[in-house]
Amino acid sequence: MIVQTKRTLENQEDEDAIFHSCIELAAANSRQQLLEVITHQLKKTGQFSTTTLYIASEEDQLLFDVFPTHEINNASSPFRPFVRTTNFDVDHRQFLKEDARQQFERLISYPLFCAGRSIGHWVLAYEDEAAVPDVATDTINFITAQLAMATSNVLAREAISRQESEHRLLMELSRAISSIRSKNDLTAVVNNNLKKILDFDSITILLLNRDRSHNAFIFSSGHPYHHNKFLAGEFIDILSYTQNCLDKILESDDVATIDMDQFQKSEICPPHVKLEFENGIKEKLTIPLREDNHYLGVFCVNSRLKGSYNSRDLEMIRCIACQLTVAVSNILSLEEILKRDAERKNLLSFSNAIASVRNKEQLAKVLSPQLKQLLGIDDYVICAMCTDKLRYTPFVHNQTGALIQTETFKKMLHKYTEVEDGIFNTAIASHDPIVIDIDNWYTLPGPPPADKESKTIATAVAINFREEPVAIMIYNTTDNYPGVKQHQLFNSILSQLAIVMSHIMANEKMTREVSEINGFRQQLEEEKIYLKEEIDTAHNYSEIIGDSTSMQIVFRQIAQVAPSSSTVLILGETGTGKELVARAIHNNSPRKNKLMVKVNCAALPANLIESELFGHERGSFTGATDRRIGKFELANGGTLFLDEIGELPPELQVKLLRALQEREIERIGGKTTIKVDIRVIAATNRNLEKEMNEGRFRSDLYYRLNIFPIDLPALRHRSDDIPLLATHFIQLFARKAGRKIKIISNKILQDMMAYQWPGNIRELEHLLERSILLCEGDTLKHIHLPAQKTQALTCEEKNDEFVISTMEDNERNYILQVLKHCKGRVGGYMGAAELLHVPPSTLFSKMKKLGIRRDIVA
Ligand SMILES: Nc1ncnc2c1ncn2[C@@H]1O[C@H](COP(=O)(O)OP(=O)(O)OP(=O)(O)O)[C@@H](O)[C@H]1O
């Protein structure tokens, strides 16, 4: 109900004034103009002392307050409680301050309606009750309607202009944000642009990386952090934002208002927020910066006043947060790009640095500064799995690292450790670096010892390269594990490292193998020289001289056994020609194009015979610096001549027996058996049967060897061969000495035939060689038979002289004798060819060569 006025308008002048005022009201563009019309024009009509216009906006906003004693302040306005009522008939003065209450006797309130909606009240204050005019209701309605419309117009204009301004500022912000490239740029925008749009005391922007493992803060210039002497720069990088606090903020997903009085008491309140509180911040508004499903950060507005932000401000904060999200996303992406770029550069520099590395020493030299520079790693040991795949051992380490210099670490650098030690195997199984718990460290069986005093912490990372795992153990004394922050770079570096290590390992293996091959080559060279000498020697004795019946038997046996691969046992006193016979068997066998390898079982120390026979692997015994193949392998495809077999130690007799039975051998220290195809010829001057009976020679080996025995007669038992042998050796040594000795006295010959020859043909050979050297003239008149057996003879008589003839002559004469004996028959039963053990065709060609005609003989 509208309060009735006491006085009525009396004349037309007043009506004109009201009409005029209303026209002016309609034309008012601003509060100022509106105020002027009310105070100057309408005052004439209302004759009030002062007036107030309340607008019932959402926030009960006071539009005008022209009370001289009151500040324009929403909170303190005396009419604030009534603006939502359409009228009030209470004694308004009770709401006035003391001085105002005394000043005004009457307050009249007129409701203002616009488009059917109450928009506020027009309150008139009168100092004197009597001064209240008596205005007609129509007139009052007319004026309030005009005033409501004018006020509504001004409010609409203001709203438009405010929106325009906000729009302009947001555009500016948007422009500024679009040019943000770094945290520094963002800080500048926060400081320069936000203040124009929003009223605040300070701003905090929290930036989160994807896994929220660390975050950075950007503080506006008014923030107390800028006054903290420990913190320099516009933003800081800290980990102190407790996860709980962060989760709580992000949970809201919209603007959340935090009462700092309460929050600073809670456990989850981070230190910098406490600092804000201590610096007078009473209210904090937070809103997450979210892009799709990722939280990029949090935007915080800090205020020293509580409840100072209205819904329009909150909308503005949301709007700013949207823009900041774009900026933060750009910053993080750009940082990621720059980080990747830097990592690529670092990786490239790392690749270049280690590209030329060829060995461990070079690797350590290059690696240590690189790991320090790129990842901040000081003390590290890189371990590689051994070839047995059961153990691992340090491969390369920082030789100048402080921790590694300690005695405990030095010891572990030469250790082999089981792969299943709880560290290496765990590191291999894990895709990520594993951090080793220092307390468990001591309970594990094999890991490198840690220095408990230095509080060492180890990080182990493993990588596989071509199924060869290598692990890097990094030691440090802080819990800021190197490599964690630059995980990707770390992994890339490790992958490259693994490649280089595998190259080094391959190089080392190759060098080892090359040296082994060189060893073999050298060995083969030696073998070649040895064999050449053997062959040269063999060639000297390629002819077995002897015509005695016993030698005929030997020849026959050689011819019988040679074509087969049967084992032959040659028995006979020393110097009877056992080796010569062995070589004859080999040269007449299908194996003649391969080697006949001789092993003198008596000439080697017992401990070397095995290696000599079967070979050995590198490192299989002290002194085995290289791999060496044995005589069995060397003779593969040919003949193995085991001279002096009777001297073989019993333990080797077993091994030899096995090798002969299995036809395969095993190198000393070797893990595999090697098949060999050899023919064995053994020889001894001992009575092997007696040796066997007396237990010095294994019976099984004896029977294995005694498959085809050839018994060589002692020279004293075939003395009729002495002239032939003497002729052969005199010719040989005379030629060698460049002499022409053709004649030997019959006396000497008879003495020689009477001599026992304990050294057999070798003794004869040496005696004649010496005698020829001492002989003067072309007749051998003296030989030096051992005195106790015989005496030196001097043969004076010419008719006693033994005429030396050539082999050819001897051969011719002998064939002639045989042909005579066979009555000129060459082939067939009991023909000369059969008696001489040669094919008839061979004998024919021989006869042709020697100029023997059958018919002459017959
Ligand atoms: N029938 C032979 N004709 C020519 N030379 C022979 C004959 N028999 C042996 N010799 C020579 O006698 C020397 C000794 O021969 P060989 O080494 O073969 O005897 P051995 O029985 O093997 O001796 P040892 O038992 O001492 O090893 C050699 O120089 C060899 O050429």
UniProtKB/TrEMBL annotation:
Keywords: Activator, ATP-binding, DNA-binding, Nucleotide-binding, Transcription, Transcription regulation
Keyword Acetylation: no
Domain Sigma-54 factor interaction: 544-773
Pfam families: AAA_lid_14 (PF25601), Sigma54_activat (PF00158)
GO BP term (any one): regulation of DNA-templated transcription
N-terminal signal peptide: none
Annotated transmembrane regions: none
Source superkingdom: Bacteria
Molecular-function annotations in GO: ATP binding; DNA binding
CDD domains given in the database record: AAA (cd00009)
InterPro entries associated with the record: AAA+_ATPase (IPR003593), AAA_lid_NorR (IPR058031), GAF-like_dom_sf (IPR029016), Homeodomain-like_sf (IPR009057), P-loop_NTPase (IPR027417), Sigma_54_int (IPR002078), Sigma_54_int_dom_ATP-bd_1 (IPR025662), Sigma_54_int_dom_ATP-bd_2 (IPR025943)
Identification of the protein by name: Sigma-54 factor interaction domain-containing protein
Organism: Taibaiella soli
